[in-house]
Amino acid sequence: MSEVKVYPVDPEFAAKAHIDNARYQAMYEQSIKDPDAFWGEHGKRLDWFTPYTRVKHTSFDPHNVDIRWFEDGTLNAAYNCLDRHLETRGDQVAIIWEGDDPSEDEKITYRDLHERVCRLSNALKAQGVEKGDVVTLYMPMIPEAAVAMLACARIGAVHSVVFGGFSPEALANRIEGAESKLVITSDYSLRGGKVVPLKANVDKALTDPAAARFCEKVVVVERHPVKRTGDELAWHDHRDLWYHDITEQASVECPAEELNAEDPLFILYTSGSTGKPKGLKHTTGGYLVYASMTHEYVFDYQEGDIYWCTADVGWVTGHSYIVYGPLANGATTLMFEGVPSYPDNSRFGRVIEKHRVNQFYTAPTAIRALMQKGEDVLGDSDLSSLRLLGSVGEPINPEAWEWYHRVVGQGRCPIVDTWWQTETGGIMIVPLPGATDTKPGSATRPFFGVQPALVDNEGNELEGAVDGNLVIKDSWPGQSRSIWGDHERFVQTYFSTFKGCYTTGDGARRDEDGFYWITGRVDDVLNVSGHRMGTAEIESALVAHPAVAEAAVVGYPHNLKGQGIYVYVTLQAGFEQSDELMKELRNWVRSEIGPIASPDLIQFAPGMPKTRSGKIMRRILRKIAEDDFGSLGDTSTLADPSVVDDLIEKRLNRT
Ligand code: 6R9
């Protein structure tokens, strides 16, 4: 390994930070030794209607996976994000909204936000939404998305946010899977000047009888003065409602429902290595304690700071670090509708300058895209307000880290590389900015209460500086409790591989200092531009096409996206390979799943490398896609070893 550079904590930063190294050590130790006392204390950062008397009640035993935190306490997440701030910070800005069009923005105070949430809460109740019902949100990055999440939380409904880039088919599956009664969407979304017809996608999704069976109402936000496509919206009077019609007359008083700590707050679908995406269930108390505490300490959020996370609310990062964490902390959170390259590549810099952003949290894929444009990509934007930078979603390569530090952080801002997952609810491994020295590419050390370990494939725990499968040995409050409607799958996926531990699906290395370096997924999950995708999902979309007999999908290193999607396809008899067919297959996957799943490379393969028992040997396909076929390993067990030569000869990624 090449020499690793260490960036020590800036003593000046540490002096003002919430947590310095001594404090980190002491708090970490207590959090592990006595989790009940530690979390019992930190749970008090929220306002509880009935205080909890029990703190941790958790078991990772595969015969009895049972995770509960603060189980006899009652509270409401929207109350904690809004009402409790009204007295002290009613007039403070809660959400700064920056539109896709740089001339559009809006500042919403805590009082405003509270009012809007109450109106929608009452409107949803009037539409028959009750505690425990699932509401699907399929929305652009507009304030109403946050309002809708909080309105659900306020009345005890469970939201399921579906990323606006997903296809009608993907949306239909998620409406059906969650048995969702009502969908909130908008007429159009606008990103990078491009208009996407969200409402029309919902209409399409609801032509699927399985989804239509559950969904009774569609509430549509009018995405104000956007350039319309000119098309009339299709409207179904029995089902469709304008958001402004149902909220305008609604009362601004709506008491927050008293919920148990373990009542569900939301479902969020994410990809796994097998089967359909799974709806991970997060509950109210533990999730909110963890999201708010990590937000405060990881970003060293201080009173009055302007904090910006560039994620989409369709992903877990948007849930925990645009909406719930910051608002529970009474922060000012910036919500950005657009993309980094519109109207030009300096947009991130312009927004930082315009709103005097202090903490900026984005993904390596965005950093690499900017980096490609050169050192002056942010133009003459004034970045002097920045105090801290964050990274999330995939491993950040040291070059991108260095560039981020030098060009965006101007050499003075600590970088927090935050490793976590939809399943974990909040940040798990991260350098606290006043406490932990950083090494470009390492997520460094565990957050309070998190016990990472490395195990070999047999489940033996490895000590010292080694590589292994990353597991977590005990529960933390933000952890997902189950897969919606399929607890057995939850147990199977996360608790049966390495007994007594939560299996992350990631590999990692630990160095001499005990720092963790995430090496990427060890299962069949891809991470394309920070978006998680199961190879199985893409394969099943492909084989649904009439021309495809068999498909195998693997990842390969991609300069911008981190990983690209490499597809091997065997055609049905009677179909000829052609450029048109390739294009068609690409469009097919886009329309089945969404543009983010669009294959980068499609190789037509007359045969797949299979074992004699008929299993595709993905290891070989991965190597060929990586253009690393010198080390194919043992191919003697293949049913027909000659297919490998053909695959190598026609390989598409020649590095
Ligand atoms: C928050 C989020 C989770 C997967 C995770 C890992 C990868 C996320 C990372 C990282 C290296 C980081 N990942 N953050 N890898 N360093 N800082 O991204 O959730 O969409 O569920 O993805 O993303 O592979 O297992 P999610």
User: Largest sheet, if any?
Assistant: 8 strands, mixed
| Residues in helix, % | 25-40%
Strand content: 15-25%
Uncertain parts: none
Number of strands: 31
Mean of residue pLDDT values: 95
| Ions and ligands | ligand 6R9
Helix and strand arrangement:
Blueprint: H1 11-16, H2 21-33, H3 35-42, E1 56-59, E2 66-69, E3 74-75, H4 77-89, E4 93-98, E5 105-109, H5 110-126, E6 134-138, H6 143-155, E7 158-161, H7 168-178, E8 182-186, E9 189-191, E10 194-196, H8 198-205, H9 209-212, E11 217-221, E12 240-242, H10 243-248, E13 259-260, E14 264-270, E15 278-283, H11 285-298, E16 306-309, H12 316-328, E17 332-336, H13 347-355, E18 359-362, H14 364-372, E19 388-392, H15 398-408, E20 415-418, E21 452-455, E22 461-462, E23 467-472, E24 482-483, H16 487-495, E25 502-510, E26 516-521, E27 525-528, E28 531-534, H17 535-543, E29 548-558, E30 562-571, H18 579-592, E31 601-604, H19 618-625, H20 642-649
Parallel strand pairs: 4-17, 6-7, 6-8, 7-14, 8-11, 11-12, 16-17, 16-18, 18-19, 19-20, 30-31
Antiparallel strand pairs: 1-2, 3-13, 4-5, 9-10, 14-15, 15-24, 21-22, 21-23, 23-25, 25-26, 27-28, 29-30
Helix pairs in contact: 2-3, 4-5, 4-6, 4-12, 5-6, 7-8, 11-12, 14-15
How does this model look, in words?
- The strands form eight sheets. The chain has an eight-stranded mixed sheet with strand order 12-11-8-6-7-14-15-24, sandwiched between helices. Strands 5-4-17-16-18-19-20 form a seven-stranded mixed sheet, sandwiched between helices. Strands 22-21-23-25-26 form a five-stranded antiparallel sheet.
- With about 650 residues, the protein is an alpha/beta fold.
- The longest helix has 17 residues.
- α2 crosses α3 and α7 packs across α8.
- The protein is about 30% helix and about 25% strand.
- The chain has 20 helices and 31 strands.
- The site of ligand 6R9 has 24 residues, from α12, β19, β20, β25 and β26.
- One of its GO terms (molecular function) is acetate-CoA ligase activity.
